[in-house]
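REQUEST FORM: STRUCTURE PREDICTION
Request ID: SP-0412
Submitted by: Lab K.M.
Chain count: 1
Length (residues): 139
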Amino acid sequence: MRFKEAVKSCAYTKYSDFKTRSSRSEFWWFMLGLALVNIVLIGVSQVLPGIGSSMIAGFGLVILCPYAAALVRRLHDVGLSGKWVAAAFAVSVVASTAATYPEFAPAAWGTPAVFLLLFIMALFPGKKAANAYGPAPES
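STATUS: Completed
RESULT:
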């Protein structure tokens, strides 16, 4: 799958599909697209601080569902449950909240740690045959 197809698939076509599978190429091309948009928005926030920060926050809210769906589909391709993503978001919320208290400051490492774990899981090759989450996606 190519860049444009992957971004269109993840951001528009399958933005709320939490049941099927995504190939590594589809997922990582989509992640590259998100990174590029974030780089542009960070550049805008440097030039227009008030507007740029709002744009980054708005983009984060808009892309949350497509990002989570793509990550769940990627884990499905590896043969893992999408519950890992829900657990990661839950740990992230708890860790971020706990880190606001000085005695729990090390909890701030919880968010990067769980998303690093998901990152590593997404690197694994997918199953070539059908699994509990459907047939193998087209590369």
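NOTES: The mean pLDDT is 93.
Reviewed by: T.R.
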